[in-house]
Design the sequence.
């Protein structure tokens, strides 16, 4: 008789909704009177792992397109991404890694032939401010940096970052004493200058003096000289191509 009353398997939509509720809970100030907080956080970590398994598959099965589409649609239907980003510091290390992979994967998921992550981010560009500022937090820098690189795959997001006041901060981040964080910032900087050439060319044509801040970086050995040299070469190439396009419309 017991077998007749087995609980119904959770759908991807169910998991996203429950994760959203748990993230809202996690975002509250810790209350020592809440004896179940640890239990709820463990449930949140488990849910995030399940989201990752749906999107990436596991050792036993490949990801199912329909399940991924359902998950993605529900994830961006409300502010689950915002909740996940803002609550990331409250997660343990493994859950942070899983969350970073979930966010990365969702940037590539299509629903009805549309990258709905791009639409969501276009309406919530302030999330990039949080991700960029993450480089100032040693514990969060690599997670937020990885998320940021995936988000700037979308041209609208890349344009926002390029034109924001945050752009010059990368020159500070690239010179941070923590080599891993500095290298991650350099990777993001390079992505910004190479992912969307037309957007970069437009930005540089309006801010030509901006490139003058690049040479001082060459005197610093706190990070990979090769990365910055490559970035400078990319800048020169983009400027040259833009100039040629002006003379050869």
Sequence:
């Amino acid at each position: 008789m017991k077998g007749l009353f087995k609980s119904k398997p959770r759908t991807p939509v169910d998991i996203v909704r429950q994760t959203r509720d748990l993230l809202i809970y996690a975002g509250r100030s810790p209350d020592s009177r809440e004896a179940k907080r640890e239990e709820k956080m463990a449930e949140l970590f488990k849910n995030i792992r399940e989201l990752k398994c749906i999107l990436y598959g596991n050792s036993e099965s490949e990801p199912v397109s329909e399940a991924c589409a359902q998950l993605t649609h529900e994830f961006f239907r409300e502010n689950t991404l915002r909740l996940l980003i803002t609550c990331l510091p409250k997660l343990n290390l493994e859950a942070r890694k899983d969350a970073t992979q979930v966010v990365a994967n969702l940037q590539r998921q299509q629903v009805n032939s549309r990258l709905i992550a791009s639409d969501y981010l276009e309406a919530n560009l302030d999330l990039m401010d949080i991700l960029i500022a993450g480089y100032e937090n040693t514990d969060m820098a690599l997670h937020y940096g990885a998320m940021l690189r995936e988000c700037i795959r979308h041209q609208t997001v890349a344009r926002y970052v390029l034109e924001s006041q945050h752009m010059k901060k990368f020159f500070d981040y690239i010179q941070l004493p923590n080599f891993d964080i500095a290298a991650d910032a350099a990777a993001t900087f390079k992505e910004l200058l190479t992912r969307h050439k037309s957007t970069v060319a437009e930005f540089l044509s309006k801010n030509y003096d901006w490139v003058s801040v690049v040479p001082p970086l060459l005197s610093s050995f706190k990070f990979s000289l090769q990365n910055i040299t490559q970035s400078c070469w990319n800048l020169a190439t983009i400027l040259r191509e833009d100039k040629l396009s002006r003379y050869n419309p």
